[in-house]
Amino acid sequence: MLNLQIIIGSVRQGRGGLSVAEWFEDIARKDTRFTVERVDLAELNLPIMDEPNHPRLQRYTHDHTKRFSEIITRGDAYVFVTTEYNYAIPGALKNALDYLGPEWAGKPMCAVAYGGVSGAARAVEDLRRVAVALKMIPLVQGVVCPLYAQQRDDEGRFHGNQTQTEAAAETLNILAEMGAVLKARRLAAA
Ligand SMILES: Cc1cc2nc3c(=O)[nH]c(=O)nc-3n(C[C@H](O)[C@H](O)[C@H](O)COP(=O)(O)O)c2cc1C
Questions:
Q1: Which residue lies with its CA nearest to atom 19 of ligand 1?
Q2: E-assigned strands of 72-185?
Q3: Per the database record, which ranges form the NADPH-dependent FMN reductase-like domain (predicted)?
């Protein structure tokens, strides 16, 4: 069984990211290939990166970093639910990525992106670039939700359309496949 972590990258009050994450999470939880863990950066409330040592050394001095390291270490595949702030990923997400090093490495990642007309396409490219630096394995599959606010109901729930639902299934398929291959690789190297 693979531990799929759904990382919610926006933290502001009234964020729409939670609604998109909940939609994807509902689909993922029905998939028996995964245990699903939500990693909500708003709940973790990490300060601006404040570790004195480079994360590659994993010599963490703060409890919040040690806790975050434990969480990300147990992930086998990552789905980042991200929007776009000024053509890039939200600062809170970049901050969280910067906190750790080897914890992210050698694991597959996809994005579920939501935003305005562009569907956060530039943020996804930004995220992939950072993921490469952290030695994650970025995959092209993912979900794009342009003008996503129009797909929210009166209670704020997000309803994915058919294309997005199919893309979610495709995303889970590749994460199951690559997640298993890369987990075996990590276990063999351990
Ligand atoms: C600071 C800020 C910058 C934004 N920049 C972009 C942008 O570059 N491209 C885009 O498509 N939407 C942009 N938006 C609109 C967001 O797509 C929209 O507000 C979305 O709800 C943000 O996600 P969140 O609600 O989870 O924070 C921006 C929103 C904020 C608050």
A1: 115
A2: 77-82, 108-114, 137-145
A3: 5-143
